[in-house]
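Narrative summary of target 7.
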Amino acid sequence: MNSLLAMVMMLVLILSSLDLFYLYLMPQYVHYGLQTYACSNTTFNMYPPLPVPLPDSTPGALFHNDGSDPRCAGEETVIPCDWDAPADQCVMSRIGVIWSRVFYNYWYFGVLYHGLSWIFLAVVIIEALVTLLRAGKNEEADSTQEDP
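Modeled conformation, tokenized:
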């Protein structure tokens, strides 16, 4: 029974780490998927549909003074959903809402994860280079030695 519980716990940790990895690589897709909305050049809600507004979300940062979206070129344009999309047209995924709440309330986990991701990437690249250089030296050593 303990081994079954340990296996389930390992699966939960693996899935949560994969979710975070996908969030780090493709945040737009994890939050909104392939959702799009028809954008007409009219005013709409300037705040994203987050559980709590982000501290750096200033109204009008991506908008003209009249409140219209500059990405709407013509009368009606199809735009992928993002943080600035109208709340009534785009729905954030559940995993996006959960991780947004976690990283907003416990910001130091996000900073730690970001830093550790870059450290992991650097270690992988360094190890790959070391392995490539050692493989070249081993081939040179094998070619210089002659068997009698």
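Residues 2-105 form one domain.
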